[in-house]
Each structure stands twice: as C-alpha cells, then as structure tokens.
Amino acid sequence: MALDDSALLEMIEMLRTADGGELMRRLLGGMLQAIVDAEATVRIGADRHERSDARTTQRNGTRDKLVTTAAGDLTVKIPKVRTGSFFPALLAPRRRIDVALHAVVMQAYVEGVSTRRVDDLVVAMGGTGISKSEVSRICAQLDSEVALWRTRTLDHIAFPYVFLDATYCKARLAGRVVSQAVVIATGVSADGRREVLGCATGDSETEAFWTEFLRDLRDRGLGGVQLVISDAHRGLVNAIETVFQGSSWQRCRVHFMRNVLAKVSKGHDEMAAATIRTIFAQPGQAEVRAQVDLVADMLRGRFPAVTDMLLDAKVDLTAFADFPHAHWRKIWSTNPLSSGSTARSSAAPTSSGSSPTPPPCSDSPAAS
What we know:
Layout: E1 2-3, H1 5-18, H2 22-44, E2 59-69, E3 72-81, H3 98-111, H4 115-124, H5 132-150, E4 161-173, E5 176-188, E6 194-202, H6 207-219, E7 227-230, H7 234-243, E8 248-251, H8 253-261, H9 269-277, H10 285-300, H11 304-312, H12 314-317, H13 328-331
Parallel strand pairs: 4-7, 7-8
Antiparallel strand pairs: 1-4, 2-3, 4-5, 5-6
Helix pairs in contact: 1-3, 2-5, 4-5, 6-7, 10-11
C-alpha cells in the first residue's frame, strides 16, 4: 500500500504528537544511520570486517553529528577513515531531508517500504552509488524495527487512560486510490507518561476492525485500563465494551461539540458552544453533572434537539468527572487528533493546565 503525501503527513502528525516524537525519532534515526553506513561502505569499498580488492581505505572509528529534524534532534555516527575523508552527501549543509525521510519511515510503518522508494530517497537527497543489495538491507532493517515495535508487549506498565481515534487517508492499493481508515491508540501511564500503543489501517471503522485492533492491544499485555476516551462511533463503542469490560467510557467532547453544532444555525453556533463549554469549567463532579441539566434547560426553547443530545449523552460526556480534577483537561477529548496543540502538553497537567511538569496519575480511582 502506498500512501499519498497528505496521508503520510497526517499520520506523521498523529504519531509525533502522541508520544513526544520518541517513536518517530527512533525510526528516523535508524533509517538515517543505515543510509550513512551504506554510503560509507561505497566510499571505503568494503563493509565492516570485509576483505575486498575494491577497498580503498579503512574505517577509523566514528564521530557524532547532530541532525535537526521536525521530530527533534538526532545523533548520527559518521564513520571516519584512515586516508582521505568521508562526509555523507545527504547531510550536506542546507539539504532538507525531513519530508523524504518521514515519508519512507511512515510507509514502512504502515505496510513495509519498497526498495525502489529507498533508492529514490537516497538519490533525491544527493546520495549515489548504493547498490541494490544495500538498499534491500536498509529496507529489511527498517521493516524489522517497525515490526518489533508493532508487536512489542505492553505489560511493562499499566495504562489507566487509553485514547482511541481515527482519521481517513487516501492510499494507493492495487493501482487505485482509495480511502483507508487509520486508527491509533495512545495510553497514559500512572506517572503521566504518554505512549503510542498501536496503529492499524483498514477499509473502514467497522466493529470487527476495531475489535481486532483492541484485542491485539490486550493480547500484547495492555492492562489496568480504567477509562477509554473516543468518539461515539457505534462500532468502536461496541468494541470497547467487548474488549475492555469493566472500564468506563468517555465520549470525546470535541466530537460531541461537532455533532451538536450540526444541529445549530450558523448565527447561534458560538453562543451554543460557549454555553456547553461551561459544563467543563465546573470545579467538581457534582457541579459538572448539575451543569449538564442546567445547560440543557437553557437551550431547550431554541434548540430542543441539542437538549435531547445533552441529556442522552450526560453519563458518557461526564465520565471524566469520576477521576482526579488534575487529569480532566486530558481525558475529556481524544488524543492526539482532536486535542490539537494541547496534545503536545503533558498527560496529567495541573487543574490550571499551566504547569510544565506533570504530576503523577497514580491517584486515579478505579473506574466507577
């Protein structure tokens, strides 16, 4: 499957914002190091410890090179040689490598990268002379690392909060451009650390697709889930109830607000939205739920459909109120797609949302 550029960029943003970019930095760093090593092999005329008549010099250790990318700074080890000099062409000053590298890494993440794609990447970034066997080795290395990450166990720590979200990307399958559902799960651990748990693609967000995805997370050891946050897609909700029995479900406020505003005339949408937002500005559990009833009554005369939506969704929309107030800002909407810029902040901010250092989430109560 080949994703188009917009799909790749959207997936990059999903993963980059979900765990502070750690996954993307690791994959980009591995990819970049592999290409540098392959270019060095061509310059030297032989691989490490290889006897070859084509050898022109020998390796003499490495030196670190800091490379700045959109995913953060990466350290690449550049081989030194005993005679002459070597510096990889793709790291030449002012050469932009982010977009091309991200595209290859993301294609590998989704469905496996092709040798042709890596070969084109190296040429586009100024590299030359890498053999087909070297390109194949780079592809195998990247595919192997991605596969290990996607199948890693998740029992190293409990994740009381799990965010589920999806987007649709255009992808080329069998020569045709079709729409594919891309889903991502993000967990928040007891100490407030955010981690991407998994990602998958499918034809659509069916209940069977979501169930298979969530069961894979559970089978890999995901445990301690107290609250799952998502939109109200029926297939997803059913899958959550099936796989994570005993956990609470929080309806994403961002998705809910979109549904509400679809029922409100354009001239009144800001007023309706501001009124509904007061629900989430309350100081305590009882006040939050009382505010739902108050807002529903306020909007009943002009927007009866909105009133019905609020009352029907009251329990699911306010599930966050059963958890510590310090965590509310991060558990009333999905992450990272719907939370926008706030997705880059800590998983458990203070109640004001201003502290750069997240307090632990270990005081999370059992889901009620």
